[in-house]
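ok, trying the design again with the full structure, not the truncated one.
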């Protein structure tokens, strides 16, 4: 197997890039310069954090085989990061605390 990506991979990347650009352009084109109602703007503002949270949960609890939940040291790390953020910390210290807590849990629990 060579290290050079196949044409199928490049076609997939191109299609995803074009689809992303079209999706991002669809909103302004559909609105035609009008502003969105405040209620819709608030909902849109909540979409990114909700999707990010769902991604974190899936990556944290999902197993490699799929279909089952896998609770391990990552849960402790994410919990520690949540505590840092809840106490007013920023993202960088939260990530650092999560990394340290996860590493310690893996070392102590053998996970």
């Amino acid at each position: 197997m060579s290290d050079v990506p196949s044409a199928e991979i490049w076609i997939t990347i191109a299609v995803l890039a074009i689809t992303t650009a079209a999706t991002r352009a669809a909103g302004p084109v559909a609105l035609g310069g009008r502003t969105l109602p405040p209620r819709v703007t608030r909902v849109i503002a909540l979409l990114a954090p909700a999707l990010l949270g769902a991604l974190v949960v899936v990556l944290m609890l999902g197993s490699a085989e799929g279909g089952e939940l896998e609770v391990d040291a990552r849960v402790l790390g994410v919990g520690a990061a949540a505590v840092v953020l809840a106490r007013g910390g920023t993202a960088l210290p939260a990530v650092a605390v999560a990394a340290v807590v996860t590493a310690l849990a893996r070392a102590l629990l053998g996970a």
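Keeping the full-length input from now on. The chain has four helices and no strands.
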